[in-house]
Design a protein that fits this description.
Metallo-beta-lactamase, Chain A; seven-stranded mixed sheet; binds zinc ion; single chain
Length: 303
């Protein structure tokens, strides 16, 4: 299993389609699973991808439209039935907490674990920090309050150069200090610089998930040069006139955000059900930004 990957459970939009499932994505990072949105049936695609319910501790909702939320009661019920759940934290707005709590209190009242809520606001903020990951929000422009999420690895520790530490007889208890960047002082007083004993940390990777939003030129700077960017592509340019009034973007606009942010790759999605073929989304985006990945259910993308 890769250390940092993005699993697409659903990349359709609100109107039901036989070609796509409603929005849901799972970010897998070092064995922990973080779900972004939970459209109807998300748990089935979660199982199809052989993801582990026991590893799911955080669910991030981008906004309170049904195609991003309706899968939650089913998913929570299943985790309860399986008895595999530890505490589960749902990150959502106050209105989401209120509405979902009422549903869970009635339908999931025997859940053998605590469902916690982290109430977020539609503004820029760091909302979760784990040992090795930071999650922050960016407000988007949709028809209701909406945020995107950016998952950023914390800078890792330096790697020990075993050959050199052996050569300089560095004791084992010093290794954590070396990883943190300390020099080694030998018993004779000679200082061995850290760069001699270690190699630089692996690159810290990042994934941004920008769900329903109209085109925001200023978004690129807020996201920054992430390695992988999901930006909704509900429409093609031929329907651009519909996009902004409905709070959505075209594939071309998503590509402009990816290009301006300096993103590594763009992942498409949230396709309108009016289209019978997804390939034009990729072609249209690639006219602006070359590194486009055409999203589909079941896709696993390495960050
Ligand atoms: Zn929406």
């Amino acid at each position: 299993m890769s250390l940092f990957s993005v699993h697409t459970l659903g990349c359709g939009s609100a109107r039901p389609s036989l070609r796509h499932h409603p929005s849901s994505t799972v970010v897998s990072h070092r064995g922990s699973l973080y779900m972004v949105d939970c459209g109807e049936g998300a748990q089935l695609n979660f199982m199809r991808q052989r993801l582990s319910f026991a590893r799911l501790r955080h669910i991030f909702l981008t906004h309170l439209h049904g195609d991003h939320v309706f899968g939650l009661p089913g998913l929570v019920g299943t985790i309860a039935l399986n008895g595999t759940g530890g505490d589960l934290t749902i990150h959502t707005f106050e209105e989401g907490r209120k509405q979902l709590k009422a549903i869970f209190d009635y339908f999931c009242r025997d859940t053998p674990f605590e469902i916690k809520f982290n109430v977020i606001e539609p503004r820029e903020a760091v909302i979760l920090e784990t040992k090795n990951l930071t999650v922050r929000t960016i407000p988007l422009k949709h028809r209701v309050p909406t945020v995107g999420y950016v998952f950023e690895e914390k800078p890792g520790q330096r790697h020990i150069n075993a050959e050199m530490t052996r050569f300089h007889e560095v004791p084992v208890y010093m290794m954590n200090n070396l990883k943190a960047g300390a020099d080694f002082v030998r018993p004779d007083g000679r200082v061995i610089p850290n760069e001699v004993l270690t190699t630089p940390p692996s690159k810290a990777l990042s994934y941004a998930h920008m769900s329903d939003t109209m085109y925001m030129p200023e978004l690129a700077e807020k996201i920054g040069p992430v390695d992988l960017l999901f930006h909704e592509t509900t429409y093609l340019e031929e329907h651009a006139a519909m996009a902004a009034p409905r709070g959505h973007s075209t594939a071309r606009q998503a590509a402009m955000v990816a290009r301006d942010a300096g993103a590594g790759r763009l992942l498409t999605g949230h396709y309108s059900s009016r289209y019978n073929d997804d390939t034009p989304f990729m072609k249209e985006a690639q006219e602006v930004f070359p590194n486009v990945i055409l999203n589909r259910e079941g896709l696993v993308t390495e960050v």
